[in-house]
Design a protein that fits this description.
The chain is globular. It has a domain at 1-85 and 145-216 and 357-398: FAD/NAD(P)-binding domain, CATH 3.50.50.60. Helix 7 (295-316) packs across helix 8 (318-326). 47% of the residues are buried. The protein is an alpha+beta fold. It contains nine helices and 21 strands. The chain has helices at 12-23, 61-80, 96-111, 122-128, 148-161, 204-210, 295-316, 318-326, 381-395, and strands at residues 5-8, 30-33, 49-50, 84-85, 89-93, 118-120, 136-140, 144-146, 165-168, 174-178, 181-186, 189-193, 195-198, 217-229, 240-243, 255-258, 264-267, 271-272, 337-350, 360-364, 367-372.
């Protein structure tokens, strides 16, 4: 390797990539992070679920990296004392149509190598989750929970202890070419890089365009809002309870998650937003309205308009939000929940308006751009990081 490798973004994918590079013998690995700490964006607002690989098409990158990464994640957490638990989850069908979909999910899970999957009757479901309602369920033992912020902090600690460097407050403001190298302009100074990896998540498409690339996708942010069960209602949920996903939309629907840090959260919805960091109330970013000039945005809006209106109504009405939760646990009432933050999903949309379902990586001389890393990217971070490490070691050493 001729020059140090620079990684843009200290989310969990960027950190895992730096970690894997150092383990592979790379020297002088450097991570640039816009914020003052790691994991402040998508990673820090993650629901904390270790996904099993149930939902993903066999043979897809998602399926492969999720299954590999899940096992690596459990091992990493055990070795470093990170709070986690392989608690399993229950996927619940509430209609005959969902029962048929549940069967397909079971087949897909088995094709992806999941262990211990079981179909459950309503009576068997209530033995595990006494307050759940449904016609049938699928028990998925490989699913778990973890504190992803604690894991990101541990990865950052491992990186610096192995000779890597993390520069905080180093937002990439512009990029210019300098012969075969690139000059990344940041508030901490201009940084010359010959080999670098873009793991900027919500801003990955902008970074790629700054670098002179022409990705055929644009990041469209979706805001997911959560509620938390009040302490007196927490006994209504023991583990993780999920609905059968809506095939019209590439999100999993509102669900219940017992968190590794304590408590039970429920959600999220999936609300189109015009601000890439809209975690708290505030005005949209004028720059983010640029998506209105992207043809793929309007084609997406036409394709998913009806579903989007349902999500918008749920975001505006706590009663509607709770009604969706009652489909799984009927005893939940509006006064059992309270608002509990939000997350943003960096969703790549192509020019035809399709929401990319799989991981998407673009390569250019001296550059690797991760342009779509939706869920289960946190679960799969170590296997994605290994993939990016392999790409870098092969491409950058040529």
């Amino acid at each position: 390797m001729r020059d140090p490798i620079t990684i843009v973004g200290a989310g969990i994918v960027g950190l895992a990539t730096a970690y894997q590079l150092l383990r592979a013998g790379a020297r002088g690995v450097r991570v640039l992070e816009a914020e003052t700490a790691p994991a402040t964006q998508q990673t820090g607002h993650n629901s904390g679920v270790i996904h099993s690989g149930l939902y993903y098409a066999p043979g897809s990158l998602k399926a492969r990296y999720c299954v590999q990464g899940r096992d690596q994640l459990y091992q990493f957490c055990a070795e470093h004392g990170i709070p986690h638990e392989r608690c399993g989850k229950l996927v619940v069908a509430v209609s005959e149509a969902q029962q048929a979909t549940l069967l397909k999910l079971e087949e897909r899970g088995r094709a992806n190598g999941l262990q211990g999957i079981q179909r459950l009757t309503p009576e068997q479901m209530r033995e595990r989750e006494p307050h759940v309602a449904g016609l049938g369920g699928l028990l998925v033992p490989d699913t778990g929970i973890v504190d992803f912020v604690a894991m990101a902090n541990k990865l950052a600690e491992c990186i610096t202890s192995q000779g890597g460097e993390i520069l905080y407050g180093a937002r990439v403001e512009s990029i210019r070419r300098d012969g075969p190298a690139s000059i990344l302009k940041t508030p901490v100074g201009d940084i010359r890089v010959s080999h670098w990896i873009n793991c900027a998540g919500l801003y990955s498409d902008r970074i790629a365009r700054m670098a002179g690339q022409r990705p055929r996708v644009q990041i469209i942010p979706f805001r997911g809002e959560y509620v938390r069960l009040k302490p007196e209602a927490e006994p209504l949920v023991r583990h993780l309870i999920y609905p059968v996903p809506d095939p019209r939309f590439p999100f999993l629907g509102v669900h219940f998650t017992r968190m590794a840090t304590g408590g039970v959260e429920a959600g999220p919805n999936a609300l189109l937003t015009f601000r890439r960091q809209w975690y708290e109330p505030g005005d949209p970013s004028e720059r983010d309205f640029s998506m209105l000039g992207y043809g793929g945005f309007w084609r997406m809006a036409m394709r998913y308009g009806a579903v989007g209106m349902e999500e918008l109504w749920r975001a505006r009405s706590m009663k509607s939000f709770v009604s969706a939760l009652q489909g799984l646990v009927p005893e939940i009432q509006v006064d059992n929940v309270e608002p509990y933050g939000s997350g943003i999903r960096a969703q790549a949309v192509d020019q035809k308006g399709r929401l990319l379902d799989d991981f998407h990586v673009m390569e250019a001389p001296g550059q690797i751009h991760v342009l779509n890393a939706p869920s289960p990217a946190a679960t799969a971070c170590l296997s994605i990081g290994q993939h990016l490490c392999n790409l870098a070691m092969n491409r950058f050493s040529a």
